Amino acid sequence: xxxxxxVEVVVGRVGRAHGLRxxxxxxxxxxxxxERFGIGATVRVEGGKRDLTVVRSRxxxxxxxxxxxxxxxxxxxxxxxxxxxxxxxxxxxxxxxxDEFWDRRLRGLAVVDESGNARGIVKNVLHMPAQDVLVIDVxxxxxxxxxxxxxxxxxxxxxxxxxxxSVPGLLDSNxxxxx
Length: 179
Hints:
The protein has helices at about 35, 75-80, 105, 175-179; strands at about 5-20, 25-30, 40-45, 50-60, 65-70, 85-90, 110, 120-125, 130-140, 140-145, 155, 160-165. By secondary structure, the protein is mainly β. The N and C termini lie far apart (about 55 Å). The longest helix is centred in the middle third of the chain and has 7 residues, at about 75-80. GO terms for molecular function: ribosome binding. Binds ribosomal protein uS19.
């Protein structure tokens, strides 16, 4: 039987204790909080230290309140404060929506221009209030490119590349030199 490769993905960070029964506020770091923190879901404290099973979760004033089977009181909840929560997911898993991409699948993709010329590598994804921004490494210099269809018309995770529009200055260190 072939084993599928998995990667560890951060899904949340434990904040303050909430109440006396061991509930905690979780700072959500996943697009799928209802799945990752649904009743019966298991998360792990980063570093493989401890598995936690969700016994209840609810939204209150924009915060996710979660209770774990392994934490029964406020003291246990306080001990978790600051812990990073992770899950293992299939390395090649993608969202159901073809226009959505997970950061981990974008990092490392080759960046090419509309003519197919190599330009750089996606180093990171920043989640800004207006839109997401790709951090692209071009010969050791970081360029920030808004992750919008007009500037990034093609994302092909399967082939390991994205196309960035040939807008002067977008991936050039000096827009004057590009003219």
